[in-house]
Specification:
Immunoglobulin-like; mainly beta; seven-stranded mixed β-sheet; six-stranded mixed β-sheet; 34 strands; binds copper (II) ion
Length: 503
């Protein structure tokens, strides 16, 4: 395939444009940076579906999960296993599931040889339970966060968040889904049987070396970090899914480090987008494409036909960079992702509901604060992440409006912990349908400006911060992150706690 890695170029003395041009490597690097698998995937392996995590109720009525981060091996490719990391297994982790109103307790043990953490991405919870860089778990130790689930039904996920090392930990395989149910809130008629007509689709991209081991190098000239040439879904390479029902719900998660996907079907069949990061949209949105940047989720509903094969693809994403950067940031790449194989006899589907959930309506009468965030390089407002610096405090029971602008030539995105936010505008315009629901992560191509409204309801803690950051993990690790606390009105933030290594 002729992929050139940064390491290979360094070895050839070809890093740096003059050397590249002189060596004729310039054209080679440009040509070699494009990758893709359209029409070339044989779909030979049944899609793995992560098991639902076992849980039990303890004496206090809490739903208890036991998770272990550990090393293992995974058979991605013929020719030998790949050393990977996983949760309760060799790669990825089980799907956690809990209902609104339930109190959960999660025992997380770290059996890796280095500190890690588990962050509950998209979850509304106390900062001390968030699993960010202040809640690292030393090797051989455990951490047991507990909180009451209190948010809309949504497809959330979990992944490590150790400061400076998140990219490597996620790439090696530490990630899983966390599905929140909200009994009574989901309209009749949506597919909801996990693993039957309600399927997790965790999409990641990997590079393998000659020995089938994960290549963690960033491609040459990439400004976004590792971009893999091989797509894995739920840890399966070249996957197919046997479909048994006329209608299937796919819970798409971009769990990749850097790659942006633009999902659609090979035959351009329309599908219905029903939910985004924080839960159901106001109404199903019929479309042929849905773009997801790292960390974002989308739930789509697809109609199947008996005996038919439908291929989910990722088309070249719209990343908005210039010609040169586009090539080195995956903007020209396209992949076959997953084949849906309709059985000969499909279970009939009923009527899809026309109305799904109330539209986000954050009360904007008197925003308590307006804040501006400029993304450039690896900095937010000219600052790199500092574990000991809390950037601001937001008062509980208030609404804030944040304006986030990317003034950089490369793409970023913006993720906020603790809250699901409402997108108010994109470059001054009403948000498109895919941004009309609750979000915790929003994509920012170069020069885009997004205004979001956030409401902080509870869990005050002046000493323990939540994070906001770019979810391109290479950027995040390099410091593209800041910290805020939620406090009582008039309360000042305390000093940020340093990592709790005594846990
Ligand atoms: Cu970024």
């Amino acid at each position: 395939m002729g992929r050139l890695t940064r390491r290979a170029l360094l070895a050839c003395g070809l890093i740096g444009l003059p050397a590249l041009a002189a060596g004729g490597g310039f054209a080679a690097a440009f040509a070699g940076a494009r990758t893709g698998t359209l029409g070339r995937v044989a779909f030979t392996r049944p899609l793995a579906v992560p098991p639902l995590a076992e849980s039990r109720l303890d004496g206090a009525g809490r739903r208890v999960f036991d998770l272990v981060a550990e090393a293992g091996e995974t058979d991605f490719l013929p020719g030998g296993p790949t050393v990977t990391w996983g949760v309760n297994g060799g790669y990825l982790g089980p799907t956690l599931r809990a209902a609104r109103g339930e109190r959960v307790l999660i025992n997380v043990r770290n059996d890796l040889g280095e500190p890690t953490s588990l962050h509950w991405h998209g979850m509304h919870l106390p900062a001390a339970m968030d699993g960010g860089p202040h809640q690292e778990i030393p090797p051989g130790r455990s951490w047991a966060p507990a909180w009451t689930v209190d948010q809309r039904a949504a497809t959330l996920w979990y992944h490590p968040h150790p400061h400076g090392r998140t990219a490597r930990h996620v790439y090696r395989g530490l990630a899983g889904l966390f599905i929140v149910d909200d009994p009574g809130s989901e309209p009749e008629g949506l597919p909801h049987r996990y693993g039957v007509d309600d399927i997790p689709v965790i999409v990641q991209d990997k590079n393998f070396d000659r020995n089938n081991q994960l290549d963690e190098d960033s491609p040459a000239l990439s400004d976004v970090g590792v971009l893999g040439e091989t797509i894995v879904v739920n840890g399966t390479v070249a996957p197919y899914l046997r479909v048994t029902t006329e209608r299937v719900r796919l819970r798409l998660l971009n769990a990749s480090n850097a790659r942006v996907y633009r999902f659609g079907f090979a035959d351009d069949r329309p599908f219905r987008l029903i939910a985004t990061d924080g839960g159901l949209l106001p109404a199903p949105h019929e479309t042929t494409r849905i773009q997801l940047s790292p960390g974002e989720r989308a739930e789509i509903v697809v109609e199947a036909v008996p005996g038919e094969r439908a291929v989910l693809r990722s088309y070249p994403p719209r990343i908005g960079t210039n010609f040169w950067d586009e090539r080195f940031s995956g903007g020209d790449d396209a992949f076959d992702v997953l084949e849906l194989r309709g059985g000969s006899d499909l279970e009939p589907a009923g009527v899809l509901p026309a109305v799904l959930a109330p539209a986000p309506a954050v009360d904007l009468a008197e925003p308590a604060a307006e804040r501006a965030f400029q993304l450039t390089g690896r900095e937010i407002n000219g600052k790199l992440m500092d574990m000991g610096r809390i950037d601001f405090a937001s008062a509980v029971d208030t609404t804030e409006v944040w304006e986030v602008v990317n003034i950089d030539g490369t793409y970023h995105n913006f993720h906020v912990h603790d809250v699901q936010f409402q997108v108010l505008s994109v470059d001054g315009q009403k948000p498109p349908p895919e941004l009309s629901g609750w979000k915790d992560t929003v994509f920012l191509p170069p020069y885009r400006k997004v205004r979001i409204a956030l409401h902080f309801t509870d869990h005050t803690d002046p000493d323990t911060p939540y994070m906001y950051h770019c979810h391109v993990l290479y950027h995040e690790d390099q410091g593209m992150m800041g910290q805020f606390t939620v406090v009582e009105p008039g309360q000042e933030p305390g000093p940020a706690e340093m990592p709790a290594h005594g846990a």
